[in-house]
Description:
- This is Anaerobic glycerol-3-phosphate dehydrogenase subunit B.
- By secondary structure, the chain is of the alpha/beta class.
- It has 2 domains: 2-93 and 254-344 and 352-419, FAD/NAD(P)-binding domain (3-Layer(bba) Sandwich), CATH 3.50.50; 110-243, Rossmann fold (3-Layer(aba) Sandwich).
- Helix content is 28%, strand content 22%.
- The chain has helices at 11-22, 57-67, 78-92, 148-157, 186-192, 196-206, 227-236, 250-265, 391-394, 397-419; strands at 2-7, 27-31, 98-99, 105-108, 114-117, 119-120, 134-140, 167-173, 214-219, 240-243, 269-272, 275-282, 285-292, 297-307, 317-319, 325-327, 360-361, 367-368, 379-381.
- A hairpin with a 5-residue loop joins strand 17 (360-361) and strand 18 (367-368).
- Helix 3 (78-92) crosses helix 10.
Amino acid sequence: MSDVIVIGAGLAGLTAALRLRQQGKSVTLLTKGLGGLQLGQGTIDILGYAPERVANPVQALEEHGREHPEHPYAKITSQDVEQGVRWLVDTLGTDQLNGDMHRNALYPTAVGAMRPTALVPPSMVAGACEAGKKFVIVGIRELKDFYPQLVAENLARTDLPGGGRVEARSEHISFQARDGENDPSGLTMARALDDPATRRRFAELVKPLVREGESVGVPAVLGVDPAAWKEIQEIVGAPVFEIPLPPPSVPGFRQNTALLDLVKQARIRLVNGTKVIRARVEDGLVKGVTIKGTGHEQEYTADTFVLAAGGFESGALTLDSHNELHETIFGLPVRGGKISDMVHGDYWGGDQPLFKAGLAVDDQMRVVGDDDTVVYPNLYACGGNLSGAQRWTEKSGEGIALGSAMRAVDAILADVKEKN
């Protein structure tokens, strides 16, 4: 039996598990997969749009919560988010994250849009879009998910918020990550560039393409090892920055690997590749959850449970054939409204309300029902399963994950202290 069971190994689940362990709690982490970090971009989005572009995300989030009382930021304070961001930077170090949580900068996407975010890996810092900067965007012919001409032309035509534009042009190189492989994934390319000789060969191809004063944008494949980018930049002799690709995300993979290594070092019990299929409830409290492994079922028990299993994308929330929304482990009520009111037929219109569906919580991150009564006093929720936010539109996913994890952990620790 553990003090706490955390379900889910995305940013919220890993943060909650590690911080609880740092506070002396025994923790079991249950996850059916690799977690959601590899679907992200390796950046920390706190609040990018509300709906206009946000300059200071921490400052704006509480106002956003007041204007949208159903949003997670109506329960999570700016102090929670600041605490979470500081914890993550301190935990991972500046070789994983750089930036200012009080200032959104603009960074290129794989289609040449400019995306606001607060913190980025060091390998992206030189890509901050500022008036007068000069970029050369270098594509790899064998990597089919990156089109440098598209990126460069879109960047060059975009007006910056304070006026002015960046200058951008495109180039190509031919580079086989492995002999005879002409259609590698980004992760395959990154693993190849972990080899010093391979990354030197890559850098020597890029170097002649760079003109004076230019920074070099490349697809985000510069090694699984965070140190690979630095060596490539030194050889090229100019600032080099990564541009995130569609999932799986190499920068997200780096973050995930670093956090999972810390989970193992902290001696958190990690049970991977198993699906939590049901919960046992007695006297109004969750007593245990059952996982389905290979050929058998097993129950894990704890005093407290943290649900950080994500939303629709992970299967933690589902829509059945009768158009009913369900949470799949505890049978929790899903907030969102009638399905007929949650989906509209205008594909290019406004947001689909369905994607704001999720779990409603009180200010301690305990799940509540339609009448706002706590469902189970020892069950907390955080991360992508919370209702009221469309994270990819707002650019708020990591802020919600970190802030809700911090608030849930603080509430758990306060509850334990009160009982003792």
